Amino acid sequence: MTILVTGILLGGTYALIALGLTLQYGVARIMNLSNGETLVAACFAAWLLFTAGGINPLWGLLIIAPLGFIANGAIYLGLLRPLVRRASSQGMLEVDSILATFGLLFLFQGLMHLAFGGAYFNYQFLAVPFDFLGGSYALNRVTAFFAAVIIALALYLFLYRTRIGTAVRAVAVDPDAARLVAIDVGRIAAFAFALGGAITASGGVLLSTFYTFNASMGAVFVMKALIIVIMGGVGDVRGAAIAALILGVMETLVASLIDPGLTLAATYGLFIVILLFRPQGLFGGAKG
Amino acid sequence: MTRSVFIQLILLALVVLCFAALPFMTEGFYLTLAVNIALYVALCTAWTLFSGPTHLVSLATAAFFGVGIYATAIGVEYLPFPVVILLGGLAGAVFAAGVGAMTLRLSGVYFVIFTLGLAELARQLVTYFQTKIFGSIGLFVLTDHSEGDLFHYLLALIVVIFVTGWLIGRSRLGFAMRVIGNDELVARHFGIEVARSKIILFVISGAFIAMAGAIMAPRYAYVEPASAFNSTMSFLVVIMALLGGTRRLWGPLVGVVPFTIIADLISAYFPEHINIIIGLGFLLIVYLLKDGVSGILLKALGSNRLTRAQGAKP
């Protein structure tokens, strides 16, 4: 029971990170491997605000999420849009964007390593026990989970209840058809990429409240986020949320029952099962 | 025609012989550098065998390399070194076949993501089994092979890789790969078994990379998972190969030599900055050197040839 709840609490934060990535890949069609660096940068930003300014990370969200939006938007417009324009096919864009975002991953990781060193960071925020159904959990994890749920719900309502949200989903389904109904695909793609960055940045802020982070952990997180996105079905918000919870529970299970050194192996096991049996994602229909 | 091919072969053999004499002329720093360059030439050329025609960015290099290192670490006490190298290649081939069978039937993105964490996965699994079953993490590799010996083995491996690549280029498989690289849909309509061709090529490439790992194992002396499965190597190989260009078999060669020297200097003077260099390397390739240095060379040569041909035609 404790394992299940801990896993779900962890999964909530994973869900936000993966939602950011699924927006970027599903709508803007860019597999952003440097997404993990947005996450790590947000962790450091929250840490700086908390230790230097005494700002509560939940208020910090209001500063850091817009920054994530601006930074990712700038990356898309400045670096990735030329690749989109140049690409003659989806395959070429895939190769180009993978290489370019790898470059960004290493560049940002190197820069953050220069700025903060390789040490592990954390800070004390709401580190008090919270009792629930006979188990005891850290209050910061519970708070992070509920904040993640609220953000994910807001995103869901935005995508399914507003005009712009509908346009975003239309581009995810078929960019060519979206153009036919007078949607500015280029602008929506840039907007979705930036929004994905903001969501991931929020995930980073929440993660930093209970997790020990360092400058070089971005790659591991982007790996997990990618697997969640594939498991949930590319561009599928509900699928990503549920897949994140599954991964969180699975990881906690393996870490507490078998060996904490095998979390990635657990993730991979899940990935292999998905690849073999449901490569279109948990809720995806058969592809044509 | 046959005569000119014959002369070219003799020239190539002479070049290889000249390189083989290198360890007798120099030692210390320059020999180590030469071994590094030879290693990356072998790795990048083997990588290009698969990733060149398929355009699939494989990040599995470090995983195969580590498998090779472990083959030597386990086997070298009982078997002669060349046999161990071949066994390492076999282990790499089996590993590559498994990974390929799972991922190469699906779209390219899955393959890239899967190989991205493969070295890390292998590290975790090997660490787990070594500590749980054997009780210790490391293994000693004690041989009396000098750097010069390693260089000779690597040179032999490079020759084998080049010959294999040349043979593949002239075979049905090579032709199939060119069609697949240009348009997979067309290839499928021609009755080419796309997934199977890719898997075969991936196995060949993985086997060679594992053999390179098996050759290099004596240099480590003490093997542990964290040093054997080093993911940075996968990225370096991708950058060097793409920097050189993957359109021709000799393309990666052009990228490896300068980049190994630069990477060596940087890791000697600014060890903290290697990630920044890798990042800039990727960006440079995507934005400025689309076809690599060899692509630029070919273009320059090609336009020369073209103008000459046009000049000859009145």
Automatic annotation (TrEMBL), chain A:
<keyword id="KW-0029">Amino-acid transport</keyword>
<dbReference type="InterPro" id="IPR001851">
    <property type="entry name" value="ABC_transp_permease"/>
</dbReference>
<feature type="transmembrane region" description="Helical">
    <location>
        <begin position="61"/>
        <end position="79"/>
    </location>
</feature>
<feature type="transmembrane region" description="Helical">
    <location>
        <begin position="39"/>
        <end position="55"/>
    </location>
</feature>
<feature type="transmembrane region" description="Helical">
    <location>
        <begin position="141"/>
        <end position="159"/>
    </location>
</feature>
<dbReference type="InterPro" id="IPR052157">
    <property type="entry name" value="BCAA_transport_permease"/>
</dbReference>
<feature type="transmembrane region" description="Helical">
    <location>
        <begin position="99"/>
        <end position="121"/>
    </location>
</feature>
<feature type="transmembrane region" description="Helical">
    <location>
        <begin position="6"/>
        <end position="27"/>
    </location>
</feature>
<keyword id="KW-0812">Transmembrane</keyword>
<protein>
    <submittedName>
        <fullName>Branched-chain amino acid ABC transporter permease</fullName>
    </submittedName>
</protein>
<feature type="transmembrane region" description="Helical">
    <location>
        <begin position="188"/>
        <end position="207"/>
    </location>
</feature>
<comment type="similarity">
    <text>Belongs to the binding-protein-dependent transport system permease family. LivHM subfamily.</text>
</comment>
<keyword id="KW-1003">Cell membrane</keyword>
<keyword id="KW-0472">Membrane</keyword>
<keyword id="KW-0813">Transport</keyword>
<keyword id="KW-1133">Transmembrane helix</keyword>
<dbReference type="Pfam" id="PF02653">
    <property type="entry name" value="BPD_transp_2"/>
</dbReference>
<feature type="transmembrane region" description="Helical">
    <location>
        <begin position="264"/>
        <end position="283"/>
    </location>
</feature>
Automatic annotation (TrEMBL), chain B:
<keyword id="KW-0472">Membrane</keyword>
<feature type="transmembrane region" description="Helical">
    <location>
        <begin position="56"/>
        <end position="75"/>
    </location>
</feature>
<feature type="transmembrane region" description="Helical">
    <location>
        <begin position="150"/>
        <end position="168"/>
    </location>
</feature>
<keyword id="KW-1003">Cell membrane</keyword>
<feature type="transmembrane region" description="Helical">
    <location>
        <begin position="226"/>
        <end position="243"/>
    </location>
</feature>
<feature type="transmembrane region" description="Helical">
    <location>
        <begin position="276"/>
        <end position="298"/>
    </location>
</feature>
<feature type="transmembrane region" description="Helical">
    <location>
        <begin position="199"/>
        <end position="220"/>
    </location>
</feature>
<keyword id="KW-1133">Transmembrane helix</keyword>
<dbReference type="InterPro" id="IPR001851">
    <property type="entry name" value="ABC_transp_permease"/>
</dbReference>
<feature type="transmembrane region" description="Helical">
    <location>
        <begin position="250"/>
        <end position="270"/>
    </location>
</feature>
<protein>
    <submittedName>
        <fullName>Branched-chain amino acid ABC transporter permease</fullName>
    </submittedName>
</protein>
<feature type="transmembrane region" description="Helical">
    <location>
        <begin position="109"/>
        <end position="130"/>
    </location>
</feature>
<keyword id="KW-0812">Transmembrane</keyword>
<feature type="transmembrane region" description="Helical">
    <location>
        <begin position="30"/>
        <end position="49"/>
    </location>
</feature>
<dbReference type="InterPro" id="IPR043428">
    <property type="entry name" value="LivM-like"/>
</dbReference>
<feature type="transmembrane region" description="Helical">
    <location>
        <begin position="81"/>
        <end position="102"/>
    </location>
</feature>
<dbReference type="Pfam" id="PF02653">
    <property type="entry name" value="BPD_transp_2"/>
</dbReference>
